[in-house]
Design brief:
globular, binds zinc ion, alpha/beta, 346 residues, 27% strand, Rossmann fold, 19 strands, binds nicotinamide-adenine-dinucleotide, 6-stranded parallel β-sheet
């Protein structure tokens, strides 16, 4: 008999490992042996603060929503998956019935159950069940680590897609955390000619340059708006994608966007309300968009990784194992400067 175990956050900055029941797949579910789970900024935020906005952790709670693993059993009605398949799990289970689901915009479904968004447990667990249609097969040469990174990559693909980034474009990305970097990879893959990345941490900017940024701007060392004006010969960027989640950078998007250009807000600011110069944007007839997670992009991300158009594994900087999940979180909390992306091998 296989045994299941999970790592729970138990109050802030604390974790415990417990034996938990082996989940039983329903007719249309697969049972997955989890292999790799990425640590996301939101996991770390719950770990430190116990809540994000209105979502509060109550009781012992399993974090983790970026994962890949192996199918070890399937329900009686499952047709497309077999034992032994390796899969990436798309974390949100939606109702399938509302107008958003029916029009393919299922990321807007109000009844979503998303891994590691309270009250739904996440995947720092040895085994988990998941609906067949939310498990995406990984080709042989795509690793489980890459499979786990499909989740953040889908955010970058959605952001660059909403910005309609295309061949020849000039793009500015604020923030070079995991999301900024996958956005960079997505913009390059869509054909952007120039991608400038702004951050305040040199190791992340270094990673951005390694991943193909045309140039980087350290906002600690210069005025980012002036520097981007120089880099773009005063024209600004066709598309500006904000992934830093700081009030300053949200505001700066209106300064660096080109006339007629598009801003996409991805980062979440600490305060819900943040100031923005709408009249500056109007003077340029600029567009302002936001994104919420992603939709229909797991197959796209997996194909892009498989074909080599997107090298997502290069953003991983640290790896830990199942017995060191707490150490991994504490390390990420206290070494933000050095960690670009950490993953757990289960
Ligand atoms: N909208 C969505 O659906 C969605 C999905 C995933 C993540 N997010 C949000 O995206 C943001 C980025 O996520 P992440 O995991 O990459 O976070 P992160 O904290 O790793 O990255 C943010 C980066 O912004 C940089 N930064 C901070 N202040 C800056 C400034 N003034 N100028 C330039 N750079 C600055 C930081 O140094 C850091 O590298 C978060 O706010 C997260 O909540 C949104
Ligand atoms: Zn995430
Ligand atoms: Zn729905």
């Amino acid at each position: 008999m296989m045994k299941n175990k999970a790592v729970f956050m138990s109050g802030t900055n604390n974790m415990i490992t417990k034996e938990v029941p082996m989940p039983v797949p329903g007719p249309k579910d697969a049972l997955i042996k989890v292999d790799v789970v990425g640590i996301c900024g939101s996991d770390v935020h719950y770990y430190q603060h116990g809540r994000i906005g209105d979502f509060a952790v109550e009781g012992d709670f399993i974090l983790g929503h970026e994962c890949a693993g192996e199918v070890v059993a399937v329900g009686s009605a499952v047709k497309t998956l077999a034992v032994g398949d390796r899969v990436a799990l798309e974390p949100g289970k939606t109702c399938g019935k509302c107008k958003y689901c029916k029009t393919g915009r299922y990321n807007l479904c109000p009844d979503v159950a998303f891994f590691a968004t309270p009250p739904y447990h996440g995947v720092f667990t040895k085994y988990v069940t998941h609906p067949e249609d939310m498990c995406f097969k990984l080709p042989d040469h795509v690793s489980n680590t890459e499979g786990a990174l499909v989740e953040p990559l889908a955010v970058g693909l959605h952001a660059s897609g909403m910005g309609e980034v295309k061949l020849g474009d000039t793009v500015v990305i604020f923030g070079a955390g995991c999301i900024g970097l996958v956005t960079l990879l997505s913009c390059k893959a869509r054909g952007a000619s120039k991608v400038y990345v702004v951050d305040v941490l040199e190791n992340r900017l270094e990673t951005a340059r390694r991943l193909g940024a045309t140039d980087t701007v350290n906002a600690r060392e210069c005025n980012a708006v002036e520097r981007i004006a120089e880099l773009t010969a005063g024209q600004g960027a066709d598309v500006v994608i904000e992934t830093a989640g700081s009030e300053i950078t949200v505001k700066q998007t209106a300064d660096v966007v080109a006339r007629g250009g598009t801003i996409v807000l991805v980062g979440m600011t600490a305060k819900d309300e943040t100031s923005f110069n709408f009249m500056k944007l109007m003077g340029k007839e600029g567009n302002l968009k936001t994104i919420f997670r992603y939709r229909n992009l797991y197959p796209v991300a997996i194909n892009a990784i498989a074909s080599g158009s997107i090298d997502v594994k290069s953003i991983v900087s640290h790896e830990f194992d199942f017995d060191h999940v707490k150490e991994a979180f504490d390390f990420v909390v206290s070494n933000a400067k050095d960690v670009v992306k950490a993953v757990i091998r289960m």
